[in-house]
Structures are given as C-alpha cells and as structure tokens.
Design goal:
Elements: H1 4-19, H2 23-35, H3 41-52, H4 57-72, H5 80-92, H6 96-110, H7 115-127, H8 131-144, H9 150-163, H10 170-189, H11 208-220, H12 224-231, H13 247-261, H14 264-275, H15 284-296, H16 300-314, H17 321-332, H18 337-354, H19 360-370, H20 373-382, H21 389-401, H22 409-428, H23 434-451, H24 455-468, H25 475-487, H26 491-500, H27 507-510, H28 513-516, H29 536-563, H30 567-581, H31 584-599, H32 631-636, H33 646-666, H34 673-689, H35 700-719, H36 725-748, E1 753-755, E2 758-760, H37 763-792, H38 802-830, H39 835-843, H40 853-862, H41 865-888
Antiparallel strand pairs: 1-2
Helix pairs in contact: 1-2, 1-3, 2-3, 3-4, 3-5, 5-6, 6-7, 7-8, 8-9, 9-10, 9-11, 10-11, 11-12, 11-13, 12-13, 13-15, 14-15, 15-17, 16-17, 17-18, 17-19, 18-19, 18-20, 19-21, 21-22, 21-23, 22-23, 22-40, 23-24, 24-25, 25-26, 29-30, 29-31, 31-33, 33-34, 33-35, 33-37, 35-36, 35-37, 36-38, ...
C-alpha cells in the first residue's frame, strides 16, 4: 500500500500540470511515478484522467481502457477523492452519467457503515442533478442508519423529485411517486393527537417543513384534495401543535393546495373564514385565490355573499388596500352599467385616500381603462384642487393614460411642457418629481412615432442626461437611457448608463439583457475609463459567471436544505436551478462571448454547448414605464431588434460551429471536427423545422446573413465528403451571388440615418456592418481551407479552381472596403462644421419636431448653453467611437 503522504507529494505536481492544461508534462510525471511503483487509487485515477485527455489517439484509447478497468475493479475504489477524479475522467469520455453513480454504489457496498461516503455520494448526485442516484444514496443511509429519522424524509423527497422528472419513462415516474406517497402517508398516520408533545414514532411528521414535504408529495402526485383535508384537520392546521410553529408556511401550503385541487367552493369558504379576521385582510395571497375562486365557482350562495363582504371590508378605517383592489378586480370582471358606476365610485374613494402615494396610479390604471369617456371625465373632475407636486404628478399620469392611439402632435407637445414644468418646479419646491421627467420622455417617444422621425428620440436622450445630473441613481431614468442611447447607436454612452445601474447577482438574468443582447454586433471593443470603463467581453463573462455561481450556490442551498430539513426551500432551489440551466440568457451570453472573441481575434478552442430542448425566459421588462395600455409595445419598438429566443440561438449555432470547424481545420485541431459537424447538422434541422417563425426573432441583417451561413454550412459538409465537387462548386456560386448582392445594396444606399439633418450610425447600421464583417471573416476561412486542400492534392479530395477562390477573395475584400468606407463617410459628416450647433439647437428645443417657445424657456431654466454643448459633444464622440469599432474589425486571411 502506498504511503498517503508520499502519494500526495507525487500527485500535487501532476495536478498543477493539469490545471495549466499541460497534458504532456502531466503524462511524463505519471510515467515517472508509475515506474517508481506508485499504485494508490488517487494516482491511478489521475493517471487515467491524464491519458484520456492526450491528443494522441493511442494514448487516449489506453486511458479509456484504464478508466473502464478501474470502474470494474475488485476490490472497488472507496477513496472519495479517487472517485471524484474517476468521474472527471468519465466526463471526458462522455460516460459519467452512466458509469459515475456505479462507482459510488460499489464503494458503499464495500463500506456500508461509512456515513461520510454516503453523504459524499448524495452531494455528488445533487451536483450532477441525478435524482435516481441521489435516491439510492438516501435509501442506503436510511437502511444503514435506521435511527436517523431525517433520512426517511430525505428518501421521500428524492422519490418525489424523480416523479417530477418529466424526461423519465412514465412507468418509473409513477413508481417513485407511489413510493413517496406511501412513505409520507405512514408519517402522517403516526402524528400524535392532542396538543401535547407525545412520545410517538420518530418517523411521524413533527415540523412545519415536514408538512411542506407532505403537501408537495400529495399535490404533485394528484392528491391535492387530500392535502386540503389534512391541512384543515386538527393535527396539521395553522393552530395545531405543529402548524403554529410556522402558521404562514401552513397558510401558503393550504392556499396553494386549494388552487391545485380546484375545489372552488371550498376555496371561497376558507378565504371568507380568513378574511373575517383582521390579520388576514391585507394578505394578497388570500384575495388572489378568492378572486380566482369567484370566477370559477358556480355556487350562487357564495356569489351573493361577495358584494356585502367587499363593502364591509372597504368600510374598515383606516382604509386597507387589499379589499379595495379586490373590489375593483371583482367589478372589472362583471361589465355592466351598474358595475361600472360602482367601479367609478370605488376608484374615487381609493384615489381620495391614496392619490399622494406612488402606488395609487398603478393600482387604479386597469380599472380606469374599463371606464367609458363620460365616467373617466367624471373621475377627473372629482380630483381635489390640491396643487401639490405629488397631486399634480397623479393628474399627469391620468392625462397621459387617456391619450388615444392617434393623439395629436399639439396635445403631446402641451403635455410635454406640463410635465417638464412640474419637473422643473419640483427641483426648487419639493418634493422632487423625477417621474414627471419619465412621463415627458414617454410622450416624446409617442411624438417620434406620429412624426416618423428620430429627432424627438434624440431630444429625449438629451433631456434624460440633464435629469440624471439631478437624479443620478434613479433606476428608471438610467434604464431608459440604456435603451434609447443604444437604439440611436450611442453605445459607449449606453454602456456608461448601464454601469450606473450597478447590476448584481441575478439581475444579470433579468436586466443584463438590456445591454448584452447583440453587444458583439454593436460595440465589440472596450470604452470608457476608471469607474465608467466597460469591456463588453469582460461584462459578458461576468454575466455567465454570475449565472454559473448562482447554480453552484443553489446546489449548496439544496445540500444545506437537507441538512436543516428545510424542504420548502429545497424545492424552490431545485426549480430555480433548473431555470438557470435552461436560461435563454445563458445561451445568448455564451454565443455573444464567442462572437466577441472572434471579432477581437482571441482564440477559443472549445465548442459551443448544445441548446437545451426547452429554454426558460427570465428576462424582465416589468420595471419599464407602463402608464398606458400600449406603452409596452411602444417601448418594444425601441429595442435593438426582436428578443432572441430558441430560433435565434439555433441559427447562431449554425454559424458558430461552422466558424469553429474551419478554425480547427486551419490550425490542425482535428479532434474538434466530428463534434462540430454533428452540431451543424442538428442546428440546421432545428432551424429548418422553425423557418416560418425566424422573422419574429432575427433582425433583417441576421435573416440576410443566415442565407450565407447555410451556404457555408453546406460547403463545410460537402468539402469533407468524397464526390461532392459539383455540389461544392454550386454552393460557391451561391456564395458569390450573396456577396455581390450585399455589395450592390451598400453602394446603392446611403449609410446611416438622418437625425436633425445629420447622418449618424443608428443601432441597425452598426449591427449590419459588424455582422457582415463577422460573416466575411468566416468566408475568408473557408477560402483558406479550400486552398489548403488544393495544395495537399490528395487523391479523391474535393478541390476547387483557384479562379473561383480568387473571385470570392476579391468580393470579400470589396465588401469589407465598402463597409469601412461607409463608416468613414458617416464619421466625416458627424465632424462637419455646424453639427454641434445643430445638436445644441435641437437640445434647447429651438429646432426640429420639438421646436416650441414654451419648451425652449423650460430648457433654458434646466440647462445652460455650456452644459448643453458638453452633452452634445459627448453624443458626437459616442457615434465616432461606435464607428471606430467598425473600422477596427478587419478580415484576417489565413495562408
């Protein structure tokens, strides 16, 4: 037997070499210590891992044989560290899912009383998201340590998680669901009756968290009615000995179970019992279930009881929000003149009580939208004559919400003046009304659509930058700046605004997409200095790392949940982890990272991970302004193209794998070729299956480029197959046609768009230029790869004439030069004499769509001429910076 201290000393330098991916040195060290007689399990596992990662096929095959031999060895490996190393080796061979759990099973058979080994197995199964393996571990703990009551509940939980795994055969799911039900039922039957703690079976339910596990098992095995019966029973209700330890958890479980059971009469009865008590009258969970049950229940008795219940609770003093919100929702669902009159009265009462509260308008807006014009006007007349800032802000919101889709330009300009007047006045006579600035911006965006021009968008950006000097940390203000600045191609300013949001942790999942969506094709290079520095590649890496760390934290949370028997938190952690694994942002960020690396000339010797079969979209836009019914659609029109989803991910996967394959071919990384070819075929099948819906997720430039990417994919596959020379020749002709068409388009259309009489690069212009340059780089790689094949002159090899390759080379160079020429042309126009003056005049409301004497007067009070020049100067710099990013991307030709 090897001395552990000696083995550790020998293993450490091998691990260091592996950490530095120096596989050759690692193998030399393995051979050295192997000759010296080192035979510890950790060493043998590490040596096998090093061998399977060798580029040489014979050594790789030798490593695979050693790994499989160690898996089947008798006596089995029982050292946990050696098992971990073996699992790493199995992952390199794509065998861990099948063989990894068997290592632990064989180890615990050899050491049945080793609790640490069981716990390590369980922890590894949780990390691998393998609930079948985890259930075997908990079953082993339960059998080997029968006096530990927690292991019984751990096993029940694992059976439930297997039942909830929809990718397993239905027969297996039902089997484990039944097992979980039987075990939890036994734990329920042995609960002692009465209020005193009894010396009952140690496996009886005795904590609220175990009640939570009971509810989950019953609800997710289709027995929610039984859950309701138990949670209303003497042993487990909120006032029972167990329930009163955490009555809020028991209440949540009861409400959830009533909803899942669809016992609407029972739900109404429970809700009305609870609402009779003052401590529950503000609980939104109860009111939400009450409203849902009201809409589904057919019992007339309950319907007749509803209006008196609402009226009585709305008369409680001081006023409670919950009953009023429920009453408005109740009346909205029953549209007739009588209910509309009642809805109007309720809105009046509510606004009288809460008009000065920030939440008042949001609470009322759905109800006010239901009122006809006469009733809405009646509501407006009833507003108090209070002219305090917050009262005026409330009236402004109401005015904005009443705009029709064909609102007149004059009405919008009048509203903008009112909003800016309130904003300007509030700066000296508080309280400050920063939200008035947001209302003015929303009206400006509406104005831009009525005029079909971008001048008012630019004016909105300038005004938001003025407002930010007063309210630097106002979240909504910075959010709008990020969206509008990036929309008009002011990417460096948008990045600066994004930095001010201080996005942290899971905000990368909900908010990060505002700047990272398509960042590679808008501004791939770094910008700013110090606190305002923004490196797109680093920021994308941060977004990915945060999501990976969140997943690891959730794994720790699941383990800690088991340790402290916190079953309600475990289920939430598992669901959240599953969402992160299948996150659309995670896929988009990974694609953007690889695009950025290619554009910046950085090597990436990995393959894009396959997209999950189902993805989860956690991108949030609920924080954006939403005063009128169509505000969501209004703001969506100022995005940088459609939101990427599964179809976008699959189309990008085609191009990414083509680029990876060609780069590997040119740098002799032959091991990557088979996997990239398989990925190209898979992505193509997925795109072909959803071709009709691509326009909803891809920009015009991406749709245009997709045609060339599909040609490139077919060409890559054709060049690898014998007898495909004719097909390859046709594909290259198609590629030439695509390149010629793009070149003609560019020569026939002026670049950029006109804003305030100035030609500037908007997001679409930058995006089109950078995506075309990215495509040209891969076309150049294909030309080099085909040229390399021609030089090798192997028999039966697919080869193409030098003339065809030269023609494609010329077209690529011409299109690249035209893209750069367009960028230089726009840059010259931005720097032309008089541009700064025109921007300042627009910002001061002297020119353009927003030219207005009242507005000009307000702007003069908010911003002096020097400050305005500084703001407008930075606009010019940002556009120049974006164009420099286009000019910095050059097609590299491989020799």
């Amino acid at each position: 037997m090897s001395d552990p201290a000696v083995s550790e000393r020998r293993i450490r330098p091998i691990q260091d070499a592996v950490a530095g991916t120096n596989w050759k040195q690692a193998l030399q060290l393995c051979d050295k210590w192997s000759k010296k007689g080192e035979k510890s399990d950790r060493f043998l596992a590490l040596k096998a891992f090093v061998l399977v990662n060798q580029p040489d096929k014979s050594q790789h095959d030798r490593g695979q044989a050693e790994v499989l031999e160690l898996c089947k060895r008798n006596p089995p490996i029982t050292d946990p560290e050696a098992i971990y190393q073996m699992q790493d080796a199995l992952k390199s061979l794509s065998l861990n899912e099948e063989e990894g759990p068997k290592l632990w099973e064989r180890a615990v058979i050899a050491k049945q009383n080793d609790k640490d080994l069981y716990i390590r197995w369980l922890n590894q199964a949780i990390a691998d998201d393998n609930w079948l393996s985890a259930q075997k571990a908990t079953m082993g703990l339960r059998k080997s340590f029968p006096k530990e009551r927690n292991y019984e509940f751990w096993n029940i939980l694992m059976c439930l998680l297997i039942h909830m795994q929809h990718d397993l055969p239905e027969k297996d799911r039902m089997l484990f669901g039944t097992l979980a039900y039987r075990m939890i039922s036994k734990a329920t039957e042995t609960i002692p009756l009465g209020q005193e703690q009894a010396l009952s079976s140690g496996k009886a339910i005795s904590t609220p968290e175990e009640i939570s596990l009971l509810a989950q098992v019953l609800n997710y095995t289709g027995r929610a009615e039984e859950t309701v019966r138990l949670l209303r029973g003497e042993s487990l209700n909120m006032t029972s000995r167990i329930g009163k330890q955490d009555p809020q958890l028991v209440l949540s479980l009861l409400l959830e179970s009533l909803n899942m059971s669809e016992q609407w009469s029972e739900a109404l009865s429970v809700c009305q019992e609870l609402l009779a008590k003052a401590e529950f009258q503000s609980d939104d969970r109860i009111w939400n279930l009450w409203l849902k049950a009201q809409s589904r229940c057919s019992d007339d008795e309950f319907h007749s009881q509803s209006p008196p219940l609402l009226d009585s609770l709305c008369n409680v003093k001081p006023i409670i929000r919950g009953p009023y919100l429920a009453k408005m929702a109740f009346l909205r669902a029953r549209k007739n003149d009588g209910n509309l009159d009642a809805l109007l009265r309720t809105c009046k009462e509510y606004s009288e009580a809460f008009a000065l509260k920030a939440f008042c308008f949001d609470d009322l807006k759905e109800s006010l939208r239901q009122l006809d014009k006469a009733r809405f006007d009646d509501f407006m007349k009833c507003l108090s004559e209070n002219h305090e800032n917050l009262a005026e802000l409330f009236k402004l919101k109401l005015s904005y919400s009443s705009f029709s889709s064909d609102v007149r330009r004059k009405d919008l300009l009048d509203f903008i003046c009112r909003a800016l007047s309130l904003y300007q006045g509030s700066l000296s006579k508080g309280p400050a009304c920063a939200e008035a600035a947001i209302l003015a911006v929303m009206a400006l965006l509406r104005l831009s659509q009525t005029e079909d021009t971008r001048q008012s968008i630019l004016f909105a950006i300038i005004f938001l930058q003025i407002a930010r000097s007063e309210f630097e940390d106002y979240y909504l203000l910075n959010i709008l700046l990020v969206q509008l600045q990036s929309y008009l191609g002011l990417l460096s300013l948008a990045m600066e605004s994004f930095v001010k949001l201080s996005v942290k942790n899971m905000q990368w999942e909900t908010v990060g997409h505002l700047i990272l969506t398509r960042i590679s094709s808008l501004h791939p290079s770094s910008t700013g200095h110090g606190e305002n520095a923004f490196e797109p590649l680093k920021v994308v890496d941060t977004g990915l790392t945060v999501l990976e760390n969140a997943e690891n934290a959730l794994v720790r949370g699941i383990r800690e949940g088991l340790r402290f028997s916190s079953y309600s938190n475990i289920y939430n952690s598992i669901r959240m982890r599953s969402d992160i694994e299948r996150s659309v942002n995670r896929q988009v960020y990974a694609i953007e990272e690889r695009k950025l690396r290619r554009l910046l000339g950085q090597s990436d010797e990995t393959i894009l991970p396959a997209c999950p079969s189902t993805i989860v979209d956690s991108r949030d836009v609920s924080y954006l302004p939403n005063y009128a019914e169509n505000d969501s659609a209004l703001l969506a029109s100022f995005r940088r193209g459609p939101l990427p989803k599964e179809d976008w991910i699959n189309t990008m996967a085609i191009f990414d794998n083509v680029a990876t394959h060609l780069k590997a071919d040119l740098t002799s990384q032959v091991s990557l070729a088979p996997k990239t070819m398989e990925n190209i075929r898979t992505a193509q099948l997925r795109v072909d299956a959803s071709s009709e819906g691509l326009a909803a997720q891809l920009t015009l430039a991406e749709l245009s480029n997709l045609a060339s990417h599909q040609i490139l994919a077919e060409a890559v596959m054709a060049k690898e197959r014998p007898g495909q020379q004719d097909k390859l020749a046709v594909l290259l002709e198609d590629l030439k046609s695509w390149l010629s068409a793009r070149l003609t388009e560019r020569k026939s259309q002026p670049p950029g768009s006109i804003v305030a009489g100035i030609r500037v690069p908007d997001w679409e212009d930058l995006h089109t230029s950078l995506t075309q340059l990215e495509t040209l780089q891969v076309v150049a790689m294909l030309v080099a790869s085909l040229g390399k094949r021609a030089k090798m002159a192997k028999p039966k090899a697919v080869s193409i004439s030098k003339e065809t390759l030269a023609e494609i080379h010329t077209l690529v160079s011409d299109l690249e030069q035209q893209i750069h020429s367009d960028a230089r042309d726009i840059k010259e126009q931005i720097n032309a004499p008089g541009v700064l003056t025109r921007l300042v005049d627009l910002g001061m409301a002297r020119e353009g769509d927003v030219a207005n004497s009242e507005l000009e007067s307000l702007l003069e009070k908010l911003c002096d001429e020097v400050t305005m020049e500084t703001i407008c100067g930075r606009l010019k710099e940002s556009w120049e910076d974006a164009l420099d990013g286009v000019l910095a991307v050059k097609v590299k030709w491989f020799k």
